Amino acid sequence: MLKFSAIMLDGMNYAAWLFLVAVGLTLIYGVMRILNIAHGAFYAIGAYVCASALGVYYGAGLPEALAFLAMGVAALVAGVVLGLAVERGVLRFLYGRDEVLMVLVTYAMFLILEDAVKMIWGVNSYFVYQPYAYFGFVEIGGLPYQVYDLLMVVLAVVLGLGLWFWLERTRMGRMTTAVVADREISAAMGINVTRIFATTFAIGTVFAVVGGVVTAPKIAVTPGIGVEVIILAFAVVVIGGLGSIPGAAIGAIFAGYARALCVHLAPQFDLFAIYAVMAAVLAVRPHGLFAKTSGRKI
């Protein structure tokens, strides 16, 4: 019973984390057709910004309960500033170019940002465990479990629903959907496609930064943490289908529980679990579970 509870809880928590780090990647690809390799660097910057912000916050002797507000503000500010800087400063000059070129450009941005992180924060590890320990434990199915991990699941659900509401129920979201369908016709109808791209990239970057911010209290923040993240995020969006928000959620659930099962039942296969799921899905559906078929333009 305890092992079953552990698998269910760990799978849910890991799926929530995977969704947070992957949904921004699939959103950017779905709207802009850019496979953003720099997404992993955005995650790493989010973790470092969180560590720095909390260091200043706790150093000032401010109430510990409000530290989570500081984390949220840091994630929003860092994500918007970083996303708009990259989109306005680099990507807007390359729209309409081949997708392979965009991959190379974002990979170059990833390398540049990785070095920038080392120049700004150095190569030493940062530890900010206080938010993770603040809420303590709760017993579920006879198993003590960190409340912080459960709150991460709640955050992933809330942000996922918020993204769905923005896309389906707001004017900007409907214009974004129109751009996804056909950017040329959307531009002809008066939609500011450039503005949609900038907004989309900023939102996708905020999701990556949020993933780093909420993970920072759980790990040692060290250089290179963005490398594994971009690989895992890519695996998740490939499972669900590139450009599909529901696909990112389902892909995260599949990958999260596959890893939890291996961790508790067959630890020797832990490293291969997510990639095995990806291979199995692609063998049946080469474009992912929720990929939309599109006609070739002539």
TrEMBL record:
The keyword Transmembrane applies. The chain crosses the membrane at residues 14-35, 42-60, 66-86, 107-127, 147-167, 196-217, 229-257, 269-288. It is a multi-pass membrane protein. Signal peptide: none annotated. GO terms for biological process: amino acid transport. It comes from the Bacteria. GO terms for molecular function: transmembrane transporter activity. This is Branched-chain amino acid ABC transporter permease. It comes from Qingshengfaniella alkalisoli. The lineage of its organism: Bacteria, Pseudomonadati, Pseudomonadota, Alphaproteobacteria, Rhodobacterales.
